[in-house]
TrEMBL record:
It holds the Pfam family ABC2_membrane_2. One of its GO terms (cellular component) is plasma membrane. It is found in: Cell membrane. The keyword Transmembrane helix applies. Keywords: Cell membrane, Membrane, Transmembrane, Transmembrane helix. Signal peptide: none annotated. This is Gliding motility-associated ABC transporter permease subunit GldF. It is a multi-pass membrane protein. It comes from Paraflavisolibacter caeni.
Amino acid sequence: MWSVCKKELAQAFSSLTGYIAIVVFLLVNGLVLFVFRNNILESGFATLDDFFSFAPWVMLFLTSAITMRSFADEYKGGTFEVLRTRPLSAWQIVSGKFLGSFIVAIIALLPTLVYYFAINHLASTTGIDSGAAVGSYLGLLFLTAVFTTIGVCSSSFTNNAVVAFIISLLACVLLYFGFHALSQLPVFSKGADYYIEMLGIDFHYQSISRGVLDTRDLVYFLSLIFFFLLVTKQNLQHK
């Protein structure tokens, strides 16, 4: 598994794709937080709420870009057959691919800690609520893990990296925002809207971001991660 993980990390940084994706992620979040209209400097409040609200949307593109080549390039280059001849189970291959891509996404997230320390330093009185910030970062990590598994799973269905990117992007958007949008329909306004919204990632991400660890949220994220890893494993076995 670790050999596959190392290979995935090397592939991510062997070309400009990985670097560009990370730079764009940091640049867009930085512009939204400090430069664009209604930024944190204009509002005068020491909070990272805008960052944690906007970051998932940028993370959709980042994880899709990171994972789109995971299996697609293996199929296209003919190296998947070589990979399968190695003494590795399907679970080890899938786990290695997921872990390598997830580490790249975490590397992209680490520099955003600068936002926390910078805003705390700039605050004239009370700084950022540390508990809420920790909860929001934890929620963002779980959300990133789910998006990564969706991306790896999407890449296992095609030998075209661009197609894998589009499938991953659409699937992430539907799971993140689709159920929330569906719950807003008038037909579900008599109580079903809450339960429909609970099926979406955004509901549980917002729940963890409040700084409260709920078992239901953890089970939800871990179940989604396991489900997409399982689908990827089954797809590999069919290949």
